[in-house]
Amino acid sequence: MSETAAASVAPLRTDFSLLIDGELSASAASLEVINPATGRVFARCPAATRTDLDRAVQAARRASGHWSGLAFEERAAAITRMSAVLRANQSALAERLTREQGKPLGQSRDEIARAARQSEGMAAIPIRAETLVDDAERRIELRYRPLGVVGIITPWNAPINLAAGPLTAALYTGNTVVLKPSPYTPLSTLKLGEWLREVFPPGVLNVLAGGDELGEWMTAHPGIDKISFTGSVATGKKVMASAAGTLKRLTLELGGNDAAIVLDDVDPQAIAPRLFFAACVNSGQVCMAIKRIYAHERIYEALCAALANEARKAKVGDGLDPHTQFGPIQNRMQYERVLGILADARRGGARILAGGELPEGSGYFIPPTIVTDLEESSRLVREEQFGPVVPVLRFSSEDDAVRRANDTRFGLAGSVWSRDPERAAALAARLEVGTAWVNQHRATSATVPFGGAKESGLGRQYSVLGLKANMEPQVVSVLKQPM
Ligand code: NAD
């Protein structure tokens, strides 16, 4: 049987439901989900209507009274049980994640393990009232109250991890949640919601799949108090504009164009694998991937050659194949966008050192590609490529490297690489970003704030800052004078 014929008779997976008020729910509308490794529809799931959203928001509001009244320790215990569910179902969830997202199975498993670990880490952070004044006359306390209902909207590049962070922050601090995954990758999130019925009381967590319009309805909904949004800068601006109507609180985790500055004293052979991985993992579809490499002229040629060598060794294929290191681009629109950015670099006279040729067959595959000798005005330098196409640019003065790294409206993260970490740290502190790393990239943890400067976002995730962003500060001021 031909591959096409086999695919046409393979049954569509349809065992997915919305989660509303603790019940699994069908819907009048549906979404088709494509496996990016084949380019074919393999599953269908319900798509929430406006009525479904209203039901979910009402359920979340009803559940809020009881949930917000629990002690932090009780909600932390529920988060621990959520992490246990993630771990117990790691393999089954990873398989669904790889089929819809494309990443290699091992990386899907890592994403789920990370979500479990980070959630536990966040739920161990204490939130305490602070006493600002306590003297003979007055006691003034700063307390923190839950906001109410938090709407969480996630993108398609790491659906489980990017849901778990805001979900934990919202739930642990006493809010209830309506969670909406990307229409490109709804399945793993819906399945997780189904399994989490045993952890959270009805209405505390509601999971709705749906198209972009569902996101718009959420941002304008008067019953939602805060939006935690992870996605592109362009959509983030729409979310902010729409949320203004009800003055919702916002956390925006948006795109990046992270620069890695490589100083003249490094060993190019030794660091190339680490730079390459930080740029190309998940086929470059990571907000905090390295998206531009600035290399000192003394090591430029050697570093380019070493990076090209890494790219040539890369095993690209279906994420379900255990040998695969790099899966496909997640969707056709993004695939065509990355190819357009590569074509623009070629037209501008850039040199492709490795990669750049598309494999035969179906699926949205672009092999890791190293691009050199390109103009600073090239789209590959100016825009967030969000794909495995890495520009390597030459610099001669460190001041010039910092200036070029900062010459962007993005400000998510960046890194400086050197044999001398203190020399690198001084330069890293000059990067206009939310996180500046030295001799590493992509290192985050539950207790360290993460988020973007400039147009890469608003507010911070993780850490006490990320938790308090789900709470309203309240001053309680007591005059100690009997009336
Ligand atoms: P996207 O902005 O297209 O979509 C993100 C989500 O927003 C989806 O669920 C989508 O349905 C929804 N949406 C679309 N239009 C909406 C609207 N008008 N109102 C409300 N919701 C709407 O982003 P994407 O293409 O799915 O994801 C890739 C982007 O996400 C990249 O730019 C990447 O850098 C960014 N990202 C950022 C972080 C971070 O932590 N800063 C993490 C991961 C991804």
Question: Mean pLDDT, rounded to whole units?
Answer: 97
Low-confidence stretches: 1-7
What characteristic shape results from the CA principal axes? globular
Number of helices: 16
Strand content: 15-25%
Radius of gyration: 23 Å
| Main beta sheet | 7 strands, mixed
Small molecules bound in the structure, each named once:
nicotinamide-adenine-dinucleotide
Structure description:
The protein is α/β, with parallel strands linked by helices. The chain is 39% helix and 22% strand. The protein contains 16 helices and 20 strands. It has helices at residues 3-9, 50-69, 72-88, 90-101, 105-122, 159-172, 187-195, 212-220, 233-243, 268-280, 300-313, 332-347, 379-382, 398-406, 421-428, 463-468; strands spanning 18-20, 23-25, 29-35, 40-47, 130-134, 138-146, 149-153, 176-180, 205-207, 226-230, 249-253, 258-262, 290-296, 351-354, 369-372, 389-395, 413-417, 435-438, 457-458, 471-479. Strands 14-15-16-13-12-17-18 form a 7-stranded mixed sheet, sandwiched between helices. Strand 10 (226-230), helix 9 and strand 11 (249-253) form a beta-alpha-beta unit. Helix 5 (105-122) packs parallel to helix 6 (159-172) and helix 10 (268-280) crosses helix 11. It is globular and about 75 Å long. Mean pLDDT is 97; it is low at 1-7.
Main features:
483 residues, alpha/beta, seven-stranded mixed β-sheet, six-stranded mixed β-sheet, 16 helices, 39% helix, globular, disordered N terminus, binds nicotinamide-adenine-dinucleotide
